[in-house]
C-alpha cells in the first residue's frame, strides 16, 4: 500500500514563519526571508542586513539564519509534522540556506511542545542576574540541548572565567575603535519607536560601573545616560563550540544556540549572548582552545533575572517572499547540500 503525506496547510506554514522570526540575531538585524511552497518552507539569508564591520565573513548572519531554521523546524514539529532540512538545496540560489520539508504527520513530543511554548518568552536579558548558582543538572540540560544539534557547550570554570571575561571586555573596547563601528551601530540602535528591528533603548540594560559583565556598550549613542546596575560578580558563562568553521558549522551553531536558549527559557533561566570576543580573530582563537569543540562560536551568560520585554520584529509581509522566482543577491556557486532529519 502506498502511503501519502498530508502536507501542512499554508496557514500552518505561515504560523511557522511567524514563530521563526522570533529567533535571535546580531543587533536584532533579522537577516532572513522566507518562501512557502507545498509542504515546505524555504529560508533565505538577507545579506543586505549583514553588519559588515562586526561580521565581515557573515558568520553571525548564518548563525542568525540557523536560529530561524531551528525555530521553523520546531514550529512544524509542534504543529504535528516531522520534517527534513536540506541546506543549500539549489546551486543557482546561494542565498537559499535551508529548505524544510514536511515528510509525515507525527504527534509532537512533550519536549517539542515545551520548547515551542518558550519561543515567545525567549528574550535577550542585559540586566543583572541574582547571585545564585545555576544548578549542575540545569547546565547539563543545556549541554544536552547543544549536543542534539551536533555542537558542544562547555561551562567556563571559575579558574578560567575571569580570563574569558577580560578577553570579552578587551574585545569590546577594540571593536569600538574600529573604523565604521559607530556608523554601523547607529544603523541598528535606538531608532524611532515605530521601528521593527534593531535594539531599542529600553532593551540595552543598565550601565555596570564595575565593568564586571561585558554587556555590549550602546550608551554612547543615546542622548541620556543609562541607569546603573550592580551585576553578579561570578556569572555563569558557557561557550558554544563546533567541530569546524565552515558555513555548515555556523548554521549548526545557530540552531544549537536557539535550542539552548529555548531550553534555558523553559527551565526559568535568563540568557545574554556575549559575542564581542568572537568578532575578533585574536580573541576568538584564544577561546577556541578552551571549549570541548575545536572552534568557538559564541559565549552565553545565563542565570536568574528579571523579566524583560520582547524586541520588535518585522511584519510578515516584509519577510515573506512571493511564491515562485528567485531571491538571491550573490552569483551562483556549486552547492554542497546536506540533509538531516529534524528531531
Structure description:
The chain is an alpha+beta fold and 343 residues long. The protein folds into two domains: 10-120 and 312-341, NADH Oxidase, CATH 3.40.109; 122-303, NADH Oxidase (3-Layer(aba) Sandwich), CATH 3.40.109.10. The protein has helices at residues 10-20, 59-78, 110-118, 136-147, 158-176, 181-188, 247-266, 281-287, 316-319; strands spanning 32-37, 40-45, 81-87, 96-105, 152-155, 236-242, 270-274, 295-303, 338-341. Helix 1 crosses helix 2, helix 2 packs across helix 3 (110-118) and helix 3 crosses helix 7. The radius of gyration is 20 Å and the shape is globular. The two termini are 27 Å apart. The model is unreliable at 331-335 (pLDDT under 50).
Question: Per CATH, what is the topology of the largest domain?
Answer: NADH Oxidase
* CATH architecture call of the largest domain: 3-Layer(aba) Sandwich
Which homologous superfamily in CATH is the superfamily of the largest domain? NADH Oxidase
Distance between the termini: 27 Å
Find the count of extended strands (DSSP E, 2+ residues).
Answer: 9
Number of domains: 2
Net shape: globular
Query: Portion of residues in helices?
Result: 25-40%
Helices and strands, with pairings:
Layout: H1 10-20, E1 32-37, E2 40-45, H2 59-78, E3 81-87, E4 96-105, H3 110-118, H4 136-147, E5 152-155, H5 158-176, H6 181-188, E6 236-242, H7 247-266, E7 270-274, H8 281-287, E8 295-303, H9 316-319, E9 338-341
Antiparallel strand pairs: 1-2, 2-4, 3-4, 3-9, 5-6, 6-8, 7-8
Helix pairs in contact: 1-2, 2-3, 2-7, 3-7, 4-7
